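Thought: the user asked what LysR family transcriptional regulator looks like in 3D. I have the sequence; next I should run the structure tool and report back without guessing.
Action: structure_tool
Action Input:
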Amino acid sequence: MTYLGDFDWNHIRAFLATAETGSLSAAARRLRQTQPTLSRQVAALEADLGVMLFERVGRSLELTQAGLELLEHTRAMGRAANRISLTASGQAQSIEGEVRITASDIMSAYVLPDVLRTIREHAPLLRIDVVAANDIRDLMRREADIAIRHVRPDQPDLIARLVREARAHFYAASAYLDQKGRPKTKSDLAAHDFVSFGDPEQMMEFLAPMGIRLNRRNFRIGSQSGIVAWEYVRQGFGVSPMSEEVGQATPGVERLLPDMDPILFPVWLTTHRELHTSRRIRLVYDLLAEHLTE
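Observation:
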């Protein structure tokens, strides 16, 4: 039997680059190889495994089920190889400069601190500027180096990786629920006050397909700032959906409707292809990917 550890690392790296870029030509440019060479490396890995990893759809390549299963393992290997290379050369500790990360204010405040500590341990001379913004900053114009967003970018010069399917639930303060009662069904939510994150109309459109019918009267307070809106929930102004990790970590709030399926939303990690070759940005990108995937 052949194990991953027996494979040529160049073959695995070729597969990983092709999976992340979606084409042999783009993967070849990333790895600074010719397309025929990279194609042979991917074919050699498929031969070793005895499975097809890609299938051609139009002008692009899509991962087969076997390819998808292999992808997460090879990504972990890639991140480990990059850190080993940095450590062996002593570059991790000496990486300097600034990396700008843009993410929502909620993610910036509640999710990123743990990974920022890890980044500081790996590269203490690196400066991280977190752009906490709920609008989509333009990586193409260098408004940020790395973006964490719930929408996949469609610009061809950007690299995007789906790092998780996050889970959200409805939450409210215990003090609010003691006064207003605890909903037992989704239809009960229509009798409650809601705190809006941004435009109430958009929230109503988002919740309607879930069978939660609300109107303007349900939204008496809200904010464009996610942090402010969540603070209003914590202080008892009403109900709102929130990611599981933030909701569970906030004292004084309760999860509602525990039997209801979670609200799933994607988390995309994005950077510019050119910037992906930068040592400092690659290090931060890989550590973010590892943390957010976990």
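Thought: the tool returned a structure. Summarizing for the user.
Final Answer: Structure for LysR family transcriptional regulator predicted. Residues 93-155+267-293 form a domain with the D-Maltodextrin-Binding Protein; domain 2 fold (CATH 3.40.190.10). The chain has three domains: 4-88, 93-155+267-293, 166-265.
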